[in-house]
Amino acid sequence: MGYKIDYLDGDVVRWSLTDDGATATRDGSYTPTLYVSVHGDQTLSDVEAAVREHPLTERTRIEERRISFRHDASPVLRIDVATLDGVKRLARTLGGWGNPGDHRLYNVDFSREFRYCLEAGIDPTPARKPTTTSLSVDELQLAHGPITELTLDGERLTSTPADLLERLSTSISETDPDVLLVNTSEVIPTLFEQAERFDVADFQLGRLPGFQRLAGQSTYTHYGMVGHSPARYNLPGRAIIDRSNTFMWNQTNLDGCLDLVSRSGRPLQELARSSIGTILTGIQIQEARRRNVLVPWRSWRHEQFKTMRQLRDADRGGFTFAPEVGLHEDVHELDFSSLYPNIIVSRNVSPERIRCDCHADRSDVPELGYSICEEDGFLPEVLRPLVEDRDAIKAELRETDDPERAAELKGRSNAIKWILVSCFGYQGFANAKFGRIECHEAINAFAREILLDAKAAFERHGWHVVHGIVDSVWVTPSEGESQTPLDDVADEISERVGIRLEYEARYDWIAFVPLRTGETGALTKYFGKKAIEATKASVGEDAYKFRGIECRQRSTPSFVEDAQKELIRVLDESRDPAVVCEHLQVHIDRLRRGAIDPSALAITNRVSKPLEAYSQYTRNVAALERANELGLARHPGQSISYVVADDETRSRERVRLVQEGPTTYDFEFYRMQLVRACESVLSPLGWRARRIERALSDTEDVTIQSFAAE
């Protein structure tokens, strides 16, 4: 066991949790390893003779390993490298020898803690559940200093700079947490710098003195989206989790993260900041090592030849039916359980099995004509335990009445869900270690066939499909026809396709929203109310489902979000657009009178490029200018939150940052936000913005209800 791995003074320090804290084991003999296969004119002996003299080489030997799942074991050169940092340096040197592809390298780009666990055979799953402490410092304090206040486990501490650090260090030492949660990684170097500045002796946040910087900040582009990775730091003996840079922790909880630690072999600190694809790759690497397969550094998989017809048919996603715009009553939702992962498992879709040479004359994939070998594939073996375990977790969750156990199960279920969600798309990712585009195409082809088969089955049994998205179908009774019970229809479809179709919920009503620019239905915008028997909760927000509309969008201010949800409840009760507009007027009147706390009007947007790269004066530009003025760094890929103060102004006065504590707002701007949110609610009934405005013009400017609402 080793829940945390540190590299200190050239040695590896492995931390294991005990009942009363943690123990450290120092390993001074560890050397990282990479592998080389030769595909040019040279032999392994030639390469070994040349690399043995390199200053970064510790030792070499020839071993039998598989260089891919399609290859049997063959001789490769193992190189033990003198230092951790030397692995990539030596790999780049070897990769530059000869012609491209002459020397293929493996096990190169592993992260530092993950690498040690793999090569030393260490399981990073903690022996007990780690304890956590939360530490946050206001961004303005971090920017300007010195820090005179901070929040520790929900308690606000205020004091002089030196006394505050002494109190913090003492508290951390006494509670001795295993995990330190920080609101931003910059808290760590800033506190240590302040300790040095104010001569605070023995200031310590880790289980040993000092801290390390592991990586600087960076900006990247991924599938057209700009992202930002903040600088990363390390405290000896404690896992650091930066809340601003942890998708998995924020989407699950400690239990969910620990579940993935045990599956992927990535220690908690690394796992918390990893992407879904990186965690999935970790799980795949565990299976690859069990099969004696090396992990390629750079992908050299070529895409097999396709006919023009195959190219056309393959370049499609999952099937989506055009939603029938409007408000529909008595609607039922059914979902295929983990459709894409189950397609992979049940159809044996795997990089080394698809388009196999042994069944080249067969057409196993609908539309595309690809063959799939029957021999068990690598990818299904990776995903099958995840699918089965999540089914078991969900089954237990339905039965448990213990809140703590339920929270643990939800965390684990959500963690596995995100891995399963990504497994399909990752097959089409160019840099995926074990991906292959033909797998991606085949999964989509199977999914399209399954959804079309399901639609035909529903129609045969008297049900009309009002919408369908990849793995979900909404049906309502067809007029003038008798209906087969949906449980029976679901069982028939499940047996036919080999994947369970689950009854998700019955809706009293559901509304599919049209596009703003036409009458065609927006594919992913809908809202509705589940029938009371379909929910464990009484009628309330839990009974309503919202997808794609403003209240589900990250940038929507909380005031507009709450107003839209309230308008939907009014629509549910009245089914009258005019009544909904009366309630909209209530919110507008409150907004006009300045009765809304500006903090409830904050808009959060992602910065897409540096300030100087913007050609138009957008709200983001105004916000970035104010951030620069306050000394708050905002890089492309990071978010910025502001309140619109005067939208007609083309200067930094257009907005106020949340950190500035704004006291005013632009009424007309936020009024339009409310009308836009109301249009999403009423457009399924044919009411667009112009008709809503006409209804508002017939309403008194100040209503009795608006005063009563405060």
What does this entry show, briefly?
Helices cover about 40% and strands about 20% of the residues. It contains 22 helices and 26 strands.
Summarize the topology.
Elements: E1 4-8, E2 11-18, E3 21-27, E4 33-38, H1 44-51, E5 57-65, E6 74-81, H2 86-95, E7 103-106, H3 112-120, E8 132-136, H4 139-144, E9 149-152, E10 155-158, H5 161-175, E11 179-182, H6 187-197, E12 212-215, E13 218-222, E14 225-229, E15 232-234, E16 239-242, H7 247-251, H8 254-264, H9 268-273, H10 276-290, H11 308-314, E17 320-321, E18 326-336, H12 339-347, H13 378-399, H14 403-426, H15 437-460, E19 463-469, E20 472-477, H16 486-497, E21 501-514, E22 521-530, E23 544-547, H17 558-574, H18 577-592, E24 603-606, H19 619-630, E25 639-644, E26 655-657, H20 667-682, H21 689-697, H22 704-708
Helix pairs in contact: 8-14, 10-13, 10-14, 12-13, 12-15, 13-14, 15-16, 17-18, 17-20, 18-20
For this entry, give a set of tags.
710 residues, alpha+beta, Alpha-Beta Plaits, Palm domain of DNA polymerase, 7-stranded antiparallel beta sheet, 5-stranded mixed beta sheet, 22 helices, globular, DNA-directed DNA polymerase, DNA/RNA_pol_sf
Structural summary, described in words:
The chain has 710 residues and is an alpha+beta fold. It folds into five domains: 33-120, Alpha-Beta Plaits, CATH 3.30.70; 132-290, Nucleotidyltransferase, domain 5, CATH 3.30.420; 320-385 and 428-541, B family DNA polymerase, palm domain (Palm domain of DNA polymerase); 549-596 and 669-708, no CATH class; 598-664, B family DNA polymerase, thumb domain, alpha/beta motif (Ribonuclease H-like motif, 3-Layer(aba) Sandwich). Helix content is 38%, strand content 21%. It is built from 22 helices and 26 strands. The strands form seven sheets. Strands 17-19-20-18-21-22-23 form a seven-stranded antiparallel β-sheet. Helix 10 (276-290) packs across helix 14, helix 12 (339-347) crosses helix 15 (437-460) and helix 17 packs antiparallel against helix 18 (577-592). Mean pLDDT is 92; it is low at 534-540 and 706-710. Keywords: DNA-binding, DNA-directed DNA polymerase, Nucleotidyltransferase, Transferase. It holds the Pfam family DNA_pol_B.
